[in-house]
Amino acid sequence: MEVLNRHHYHGKGLPDGAVYVGRGTALGNPFEVGPELTRDEAVDQFHDYLIDCIEAGDPVILTAMRGLTEQSKLACSCVPKRCHATEVAEIWAQYALRWREEDASRPVRRIYTGVGSRDVPDRVAELAYRLGRRLAELGFTMRSGGANGMDTVFEEATPESQREIFLPFPGFNGRQQALLQHPTAEAIRIAYEVHPAGRRLGQKALPFHARNTHQVLGKLLDDPSDFVLCYTPDGARCEAERTRRTGGTGQAIALASRWGVPVFNLYHPGEVECLGEFIRQRYGVTRNG
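The structure corresponding to this sequence follows.
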């Protein structure tokens, strides 16, 4: 993982894929160098702070850290001076394997996220409805967000007792019943971090992207879904495949990627078979079960 000085790129923009971790971001250093703290003290305190947040299960910090890879470039303002971004890289390396192991051994919960485009072909909507009905019969709880299109298809396919609906604001799209009527402050912070244009999102848009956080991580942001079932017109299945055509569903797909949650996108032929095999292996469900 490489650490860059963002000032070296003034006027040119950071390299593609670079992650800014300066103050104001989830991975920024809250401890400032000044009369009361030397640079080494500020960075040392950040080191302890970051580990404490990870061990406490802070969903904002964890989502930001899980979005990094060995190839990530971290941009701040300090290098070649000692920089907290170096601590981010080193701590990520300490936890990356542990997170993969936790994802692989996550308890089976029978909870899935059913989301997708508002503009959905009739054949896909019909297929999603049938899948939603079958998953409900198998005892799955469905999480969604009350929007037109795929959200509504999955909602209508699922009995009310098996739904977890998360809204951007009370009464959205005529919905009166929801597990959450508006996203939490932590979910909004996660949306701000995960969205590729998070720093340009207005206050009207943020709640819509933030409710996607709950759709994947649950009411308290500590209970990831077993899988995401969706449709987008570009077929994205992971954060790296996200495009403008993925739309708002890209937020859920990106979160799923970071938290090791499989994504099944009904854009792809054969995706139903892939989902069926996943369910048989993970839940021990037979073809006729």
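The mean pLDDT is 93.
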